[in-house]
């Protein structure tokens, strides 16, 4: 069996087309466009590149965007004051703080300082709580929501499926489990979450109808860990040295793609899978936050 490729580029293009209409309708109704502010602390090259990508996507869609840059040694209070000013700025509808933050800044304090109504990453505890409780009006975190959208829009049956997630981070594993277990269409899955203390990981992953790899470990998922016909979602984005690549490195997923695609019925590639969906759902949340704020 050679797996069907589930392309995040294709699914996100479909969502961007829908978003174009929602942005036009917003402009018509309110006379402005939704605006995303990104706060970047320090000069980590990967973070800079992610922030650039988000700004470019806003530009492509005709959304407003701004980047607030603070030095890597900026005190925590300076960041909190910056967020306070953004929270009070009526012209900004969505805000995110690019992670990771320098070690001297407490991430939990910063994430709690974002106005929950502008929290397009859905990292504020109030929004996490609303998500867990299944509040239909809360914005959902971008990567897990993107995975759900990619599955549903590709015709993968989530309802009634056994979804095994490898990884229990607050960004991917835990929120994805909470989203897919909700009692609603596109969810209603039976979910198992695995981590480094899971005994006999392969025995559990082989029971998955849908296997999601979010371990941050290259080729952690091998073909013998996948049931024939399973759907495999590779969230991993791991930088590995590659002297033959133009920049001397490339990004690989958590799944041994070439071997697993011979076992699975469908699989997401890296790059071009979950990554484009994450940025897409960020744009989606920015537009939704603006509608929620100014009214429909
Ligand atoms: N494409 C995107 O948009 C996107 C977005 C977010 C993340 N990512 C990528 O997705 C990956 C995961 O990200 P993250 O933020 O969730 O990572 P993380 O915070 O490092 O969490 C990794 C999780 O995987 C578990 N794990 C690691 N190795 C394992 C193994 N061999 N067997 C079983 N469990 C294992 C860890 O278990 P313990 O809890 O026991 O340590 C942990 O729960 C990374 O490669 C990241 O770059 C991609």
What does this structure look like?
- The protein has 296 residues and is α/β, with parallel strands linked by helices.
- The protein has two domains: 86 residues, Leucine Dehydrogenase, chain A, domain 1 (Rossmann fold); 135 residues, 3-Layer(aba) Sandwich (Rossmann fold), CATH 3.40.50.720.
- Helix content is 40%, strand content 16%.
- The protein has ten helices and eleven strands.
- The strands form three sheets. Strands 1-11-8-7-5-6 form a six-stranded parallel β-sheet.
- Strand 9 and strand 10 form a beta hairpin.
- It is globular, with a radius of gyration of 19 Å.
- It starts with a strand and ends with a helix.
- NADP nicotinamide-adenine-dinucleotide phosphate binds next to helix 10.
The CATH topology assignment of the largest domain is Rossmann fold
Number of strands: 11
The CATH class of the largest domain = Alpha Beta
Runs in which pLDDT lies below 50 for 5 or more consecutive residues are none
User: Share of helix among residues?
Assistant: 25-40%
Which CATH-level-2 architecture of the largest domain?
3-Layer(aba) Sandwich
Largest sheet: 6 strands, parallel
| Individual helix count | 10
Order of strands across the main sheet: 1-11-8-7-5-6
Ligand names:
NADP nicotinamide-adenine-dinucleotide phosphate
Name the CATH superfamily classification of the largest domain. NAD(P)-binding Rossmann-like Domain
Radius of gyration: 19 Å
Overall body shape: globular
Q: What structural category do the secondary elements indicate?
A: alpha/beta
Number of domains: 2
State the separation between the terminal residues, measured CA to CA: 47 Å
């Amino acid at each position: 069996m050679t797996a069907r490729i589930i392309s995040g580029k294709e699914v996100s293009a479909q969502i961007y087309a829908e978003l174009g209409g929602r942005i036009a309708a917003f402009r018509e109704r309110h006379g402005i466009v939704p605006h995303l502010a990104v706060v970047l602390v320090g000069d980590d090259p990967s973070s800079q590149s992610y922030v650039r990508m988000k700004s470019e996507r806003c530009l492509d869609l005709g959304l407003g965007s701004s980047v607030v840059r603070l030095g890597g040694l900026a005190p925590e209070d300076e960041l909190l004051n910056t967020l306070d000013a953004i929270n009070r700025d009526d012209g900004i509808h969505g805000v995110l703080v690019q992670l990771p933050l320098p070690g001297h800044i407490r991430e939990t304090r910063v994430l709690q300082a974002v106005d929950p109504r502008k929290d397009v990453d859905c990292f504020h505890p109030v929004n996490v709580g609303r998500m867990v409780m299944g509040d239909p009006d809360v914005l959902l975190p971008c990567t897990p929501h993107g995975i759900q959208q990619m599955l549903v829009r590709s015709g993968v049956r989530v309802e009634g499926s056994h979804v095994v997630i490898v990884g229990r981070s607050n960004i991917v594993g835990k929120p994805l489990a909470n989203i897919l277990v909700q009692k609603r269409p596109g969810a209603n899955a039976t979910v198992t979450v695995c981590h480094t203390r899971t005994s006999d990981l392969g025995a559990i992953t082989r029971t998955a109808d849908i296997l999601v790899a979010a371990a941050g470990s290259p080729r952690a998922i091998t073909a013998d860990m996948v049931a024939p016909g399973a759907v495999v979602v590779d969230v991993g984005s791991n930088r590995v040295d590659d002297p033959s690549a133009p920049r001397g490195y490339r990004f690989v997923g958590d799944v041994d793609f070439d071997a697993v695609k011979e076992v699975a019925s469908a699989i997401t590639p890296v790059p071009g899978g979950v990554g484009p969906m994450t940025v897409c759902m960020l744009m989606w949340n920015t537009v939704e936050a603006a509608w929620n704020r100014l009214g429909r």
